[in-house]
Design brief:
The complex is a heterodimer of chains A (501) and B (633). By secondary structure, chain A is mainly α. Chain A has 21 helices and two strands. Chain B is globular, with a radius of gyration of 28 Å. Classes of the chains: A mainly alpha (501), B mainly alpha (633).
């Protein structure tokens, strides 16, 4: 069965279908149903994935532009699979969370939900693409629905934020396009298929230039310090649901691209640039966290925590150890759940009071204990509390980085302390203390909102104690990636007698 | 003697040791998810799960005693947690962990029961029991884990419970701030512990005790010292040892049963557990051991000095807790000769300090939640049971002959004296100060004239609160002698931590012991003249600079503020400014520059279709350029 094309197809057809429905409420229900079908299909596909089988599974390849060797080629390895799962899980949650978000403005409610499904198709496509040109097409096309979601449905500064987001991304995308085309012509294979291009660029100088073309695009997308300034604006202006898809999934394409393309296509360049990338990552971790502490706007604060978290992911990717790489991949998934929960619950709060400013809140826990409690859990996942899945990935990234880059890992680990400060301080200012006059009548979470929050918290908890199902899928793929870069894990200084060996 | 081998176990109570953790965890989950529906029976469920956990602990203890001493380190495998890093994690039931389990579930259950009465009128009582249950589960995971990752999960789990409970009355800004402070300072310690764990992993590629400890000697001296010091940083955070002590005094914002259970009897002793558990590593790194003993002695003195100047009964007791844990850390730093005394003192302290805190809670309960001892006085007649049990706790902590503290603290002092005379004499001095500040506390509270304010009408607390006090004070009387005489506890613990070359002999009339007693007596008599016989002023006199020094917690907070908080705030402001004006300024400037003028950017905001076209044009131009470049390559 062509699983991946089915997933993309169902999303696209769903998006078209939504625009045909006359009634807004029916349109929402239809969108939710489509996204749940996509989720069910994705889970069914994931169950059939065999972790130790072929590297790429469920492969489909058709010629698209034969003259240039462009294909419609899709397949997944463990890394792509978990990211597609993440997208498929987040979309229905976002749909449910955004139920009334599009009603405030003058724009069409149906269009908003249709855009979400268009975006879902592209998110699945971008992670599944096995043709570099196809990847590029999805990479750029993703911008369009997100541009309209921010620009048409966002907050007061939405136009500025949307244009900034678009220009930034286009700039990176163009650099990548240049690199893609150069890769194609230098490789001289007459094809854009990823598997045919791996290992074709032997010259190290060429690798370095092409690496930069891809890397800068991904660093903007992720975003890595100092390419991050579009994110706080975009995330703060986007509706909460769009912010979740933007930070939770779209930005992961950046770190995914680093792992997939920068490492495998240009291994020597990747090794050459490792010190630079890790330095940028560590600066991002500490800098993002410190700037987050100083924010007065809740959504901007959450956006900056993500700058810090993306630093962890990029550091894990470039540390080039199995633990760090697998940890970074797991981090991409967990961060989607964690930041998703934070943005959505903050969104619920902001919708009630009509302000994003922390100073406008206080003592919410007293009037809305469930909202406060879930916000705390989401916050604790952002500071990587053990027992929540984010801990596992952060632990793996740091421990894996420590194996090869001790000093960087130690500096990065200060992020653990800073995270406690930005989360708990925000929590204290909004939820604790005497109840502010303006929030005395805030209602607690309603049934729909509880349905939004519950799956996210459940996933954070389940994978917090039992990350094995994800790691079993991720591990072989990461090992394969690292072996294609021809790096090996450092051996222990003192070998121990392992039980059962 | 070296510790015993690790054995894989199945069956019996040890085989289901995970129930100890699971039962209170389920309790917490039911109470938190069940919401107000569980209000009516919430406290009972909390008590039942804690008691059930205690029963499992007792059964596991009995089963463990059935094995020969050399076969008492029994591991049960649970599941693969993090494949590649923490595969086959499980629990380790050995004399060390089971001692903690009995303490945590035993004292924990008593405090649960006491809380039924103490929190009877609090609308959040169900939530309170949920957090207490969560704490018990996390603490048991901490001590039962057979590897450093699971230990860390429990370690931060108790930190979370502590955060939630210190901030239980979160509507009070002081409580919310104290909770946050506790978590953040603990995170500083956890940062050290994490790096320590990473070092262990990088060195051994394993985090399992059963794999790391037997191989520890193979690591270089530098590595072992680094690991030891990093674990110590973690221990300092959790156990409020210098220089990470500042959170504990503020933590008294939590309800008193919390102070008794978490911030006296159990959680704050986790650092001692970590050091003793990792004994093999410390014994191979003398420098690390030396630092441990220095931290212990410095803290035991600092805590005692802070205790002398506090008028808030709970803060005085908190200073005392710091100090007593200092004794344990000192003993833990000495090695096998000190381990048994460290843990024995930890256990007896768990009893008498819980007794004292709950006693203080009983007093507060009777005095409209007043904590200022200057407004107490003459309470012994109004609250006879509380007074009697408090008096026993007091005698135990100052080391009155034949009570628990006498045996366990004296053991630490004697061992320290043998190890290093300077450390030993400083520990003796600490005991003298303890005699003073604890006597001051008792005299100010229970003796002298009534200094009650307002409508205070002190009364004895209900039986649900006094019975736990009675049971705890029984422990405060007998437990020490039972554990120490005949080296009973040292022998029991030896499969887990080893034995010293020479077994200590209990000497009731050693020189050190006599000097200690004399100093304690001097301290007590001095306190009697100042606070028992003389009138206690309603407002604290100004006192010398030494008094001010002690009152301000030895300027710990002032130091933190000057060194970290203010530079931190400054740095934060600078970073935010830099981000808005620096990086983003450059970006916006560039964008405006490309557009031709700075006004262009503002126009982009309104006519985004045009700018969209513009960017497509720029893109196309770049694309064409790219083709040229490629063509020339």
């Amino acid at each position: 069965m062509p699983w991946l094309s089915t997933l993309i197809g169902v999303s696209v057809l769903g998006a078209l279908g939504v625009t045909l429905v006359r009634n807004d409420k029916l349109a929402k229900q239809f969108t939710l149903a489509v996204s749940l079908v996509v989720l069910a299909l994705t889970v069914a596909m994931a169950v059939q994935f065999s972790p130790n089988g072929d590297k790429f599974q469920f492969a489909e390849t058709y010629n698209w532009i034969p003259a240039f060797g462009v294909h419609y080629g899709v397949a997944v390895d463990g890394i792509a699979l978990v990211l597609i799962l993440l997208s498929a899980v987040l979309v229905p949650i976002v749909v449910l969370a955004s139920w009334h978000d599009a009603e405030a403005g003058k724009r069409s409610v149906r269009t908003y939900f249709s855009l979400i499904l268009v975006l879902e198709a592209m998110m699945i496509g971008v992670f599944a693409a096995t043709d570099v040109f196809l990847f590029y097409v999805f990479f750029e096309a993703m911008l369009i629905p997100m541009y309209f979601m921010i620009g048409s449905y966002g907050g007061a500064q939405r136009s500025y934020a949307a244009v900034k987001f678009l220009l930034y991304s286009l700039f990176g995308g163009l650099l990548m396009l240049v690199a893609v085309i150069a890769l194609y012509s230098i490789a001289g294979k007459g094809t854009f298929m990823f598997s045919d291009l791996v290992g074709t660029i032997q010259d190290v100088t060429t690798q370095k230039w092409l690496f930069l073309g891809f890397f800068i695009a991904f660093a903007i997308k992720a975003p890595l310090w100092p390419f991050h300034t579009w994110l706080p604006d975009a995330a703060a202006q986007a509706p909460a649901g769009a912010a979740v898809l933007l930070v939770g999934v779209l930005d992961k394409v950046g770190t995914y691209g680093m792992l997939r393309f920068c490492l495998e296509l240009f291994p020597e360049a990747a090794k050459f640039f490792t010190p630079l990338v890790i330095t940028l990552s560590v600066i991002g971790i500490v800098y993002g966290a410190i700037v987050a502490i100083g924010q007065t706007d809740m959504k901007r604060l959450i956006a900056y925590t993500s700058v810090s978290h993306f630093g962890f992911i990029a550091m894990g990717v470039f540390a080039m150890t199995t633990n760090a790489g697998a940890g970074a991949t797991l981090y991409m998934v967990n961060h989607g759940f964690s930041t998703g929960a934070l943005f959505l619950i903050a969104g619920f709060l902001i919708n009630r009071r009509g302000s994003q400013y922390i100073a406008d809140y206080g003592g919410v826990q007293k009037v809305a204990p469930v909202l406060a409690g879930t916000f705390l859990v989401a916050g604790l996942s952002s500071l990587s509390l053990p027992g929540l899945s984010t801990f596992v990935s952060e632990f793996m990234v740091l421990a894996g980085t420590y194996e090869k880059h001790l000093v960087f890992a130690v500096i990065a680990a200060t992020g653990v302390i800073l995270a406690a400060i930005y989360i708990l301080w925000m929590y204290q200012r909004t939820m604790n203390g005497p109840t502010a006059e303006s929030v005395k009548t805030l209602p607690d979470l309603n049934a729909r909102e509880k349905w939004v929050v519950t799956p996210l918290i459940a996933l954070l908890l389940v994978f917090g104690f039992y990350p094995k199902p994800l790691l079993d899928v991720i591990h072989p793929a990461v090992k394969d990636t690292l072996s294609s870069v021809s790096v090996t894990d450092p051996a222990p200084a003192v070998p121990v007698a392992k039980e059962g060996q | 003697m070296e510790p015993a081998e690790f054995i894989t176990h199945s069956g019996g109570a040890i085989g289901v040791a995970w129930l100890m953790i699971a039962l209170p965890l389920v309790g917490a989950a039911v109470l938190l998810l069940g919401g107000r529906r569980t209000d009516r029976f919430g406290h009972l469920l909390g008590v039942v799960t804690a008691l059930a956990s205690f029963v499992v602990a007792v059964l596991a203890f009995v089963q463990l005693l059935g094995f020969a001493p050399g076969e008492r380190r029994r591991g049960i495998a649970l599941y693969d947690f993090i494949p590649g890093m923490a595969t086959k994690v499980g629990l380790l039931v050995d004399p060390l962990s089971i001692s903690f389990c009995l303490l945590i579930t035993g004292v924990g259950s008593l405090i649960h029961i006491y809380s039924i009465g103490y929190m009877a009128h609090d609308p959040g009582r169900r939530r309170f029991f949920a957090y207490l249950n969560l704490f018990v589960a996390a603490m048991l995971l901490l001590v039962l884990a057979d590897n450093y990752v699971a230990l860390f999960v429990g370690w931060e789990g108790v930190g979370l419970a502590s955060y939630l409970l210190i901030g239980f009355w979160q509507h009070k800004p002081s409580a919310a701030t104290a909770a946050k402070k506790a978590f953040i300072v603990n995170r500083v310690g956890d940062f050290g512990l994490l790096i320590g764990i990473f070092t262990i992993f990088a060195t051994f590629h394993s985090l399992k005790f059963a794999e790391v400890f037997p191989a520890a000697h193979g690591a270089s001296q530098g590595t072992l010292t680094a690991i030891g010091l990093l674990l110590l940083v973690g221990a300092c955070g959790k156990s409020a040892q210098l220089p990470l002590q500042s959170w504990l005094l503020d933590a008294m914002e939590g309800p008193t049963p919390v102070s008794a259970l978490i911030h006296a009897a159990t959680m704050v002793t986790a650092g001692v557990y970590l050091i003793v558990r990792s004994g093999v590593i410390f014994q191979a790194a003398e420098t690390a051991q030396l630092v441990v003993t220095i931290v212990g002695v410095a803290t035991l003195l600092a805590g005692a000095i802070i205790g002398t100047a506090k008028d808030d009964i709970k803060k005085a007791l908190a200073g005392s807790t710091m100090s007593q844990i200092g004794y344990m850390v000192l003993a833990a730093g000495i090695g096998p000769a000190g381990y048994a005394f460290a843990i024995a003192h930890l256990i007896t302290h768990g009893f008498f300090k819980a007794d004292l805190f709950l006693g203080a809670g009983s007093v507060m309960h009777a005095m409209n939640d007043e904590v200022n001892m200057r407004k107490y006085g003459a309470l012994r007649k109004a609250m006879p049971v509380t007074f009697a049990t408090f008096l026993i706790g007091y005698l135990a902590i100052i080391g009155f002959p034949l009570l628990s503290g006498y045996f366990t603290k004296d053991g630490i002092i004697e061992t320290a004296m043998e190890h290093n005379a300077i450390l030993g004499w400083l520990a003796v001095l600490g005991a003298g100060i303890t005699g003073f500040y604890m006597s001051r506390l008792v005299f100010m509270t229970f003796f002298g004239a009534k200094r009650w304010e307002g409508d205070a009408h002190p009364h004895e607390s209900p039986a649900v609160m006094t019975w736990p006090l009675i049971i705890l004070s029984a422990g405060a009387i007998f437990l020490g002698g039972f554990l120490i005489v005949g080296n009973r506890f040292m022998t029991f613990l030896s499969p887990a931590v080893g034995l010293p070359e020479h077994l200590p002999e209990f000497n009731p009339v050693s020189l050190t012991g006599l000097v200690t007693l004399a100093l304690v007596a001097v301290g007590a008599v001095f306190a009697w003249f100042r606070y028992g016989a003389a009138e206690v002023p309603a407002v604290a006199p100004r006192g010398s600079f030494l008094t001010a020094f002690a009152r301000r917690d030895l300027y710990g907070d002032a130091l933190n503020e000057a060194l970290f908080m203010r530079p931190g705030q400054w740095l934060t402001r600078l970073a935010v400014f830099f981000d808005n004006r620096g990086i983003d300024g450059v970006v916006n400037g560039l964008a405006a520059g490309i557009g031709g003028s700075s006004g262009r950017l503002r126009r982009i905001q309104t006519g985004f279709v045009r700018s969209y076209a513009l960017s497509i044009f720029v893109g196309a131009a770049l694309l064409v350029g790219a083709w040229f470049v490629v063509g020339n390559l």
